[in-house]
């Protein structure tokens, strides 16, 4: 099925949809911004981007773009962001900036812990 057809079916009816104060959000893990739009939706995209932090105090991030998975561990935040940006930018350059914001927030929480 085409992604536009899937979006037409899922945009107002899916189990991840959250409506608050007249605004629609999405709770799916492959949606980096939690906005209910076809660009960020992991259910509609052919190659969804999933970013999650692994471990406690270590700067370790697991990234999945479509079926390609990788785990990135770097000592500094700049090195982690550069390596992750290169990986995501090759496959989904339109989501690179959003994914880097998500990784940066996750690594900041890791350093505070």
Please, could you describe this protein's structure?
With 113 residues, the protein is an alpha+beta fold. It is built from 3 helices and 5 strands. It has helices at 3-10, 77-91, 96-112; strands at 17-20, 23-26, 49-54, 60-65, 68-73. The chain has a 3-stranded antiparallel sheet, with helices on one face. Helix 2 runs antiparallel to helix 3. The longest helix has 17 residues, at 96-112. It is globular, with a radius of gyration of 15 Å.
Structural class: alpha+beta
**Cα distance spanning the termini:** 44 Å
Radius of gyration: 15 Å
Count the E strands: 5
Q: What is the number of helical segments per DSSP (H or I, 4+ residues)? A: 3
Largest sheet: 3 strands, antiparallel
Mean pLDDT: 86
Strand content: 15-25%
The shape, in one word, is: globular
Helix content: 25-40%
Taking pLDDT < 50 over at least 5 consecutive residues as the criterion, the unreliable ranges are none
What is the string of helix and strand elements? HEEEEEHH
Strand neighbour order, sheet with most strands: 3-4-5
In short:
The chain is an alpha+beta fold and 113 residues long. Helix content is 35%, strand content 23%.
SSE topology:
Elements lengths: L2 H8 L6 E4 L2 E4 L22 E6 L5 E6 L2 E6 L3 H15 L4 H17 L1
Antiparallel strand pairs: 1-2, 3-4, 4-5
Helix pairs in contact: 2-3
Keywords, separated by commas or semicolons:
113 residues; alpha+beta; 3-stranded antiparallel beta sheet; two-stranded antiparallel ribbon; 5 strands; globular
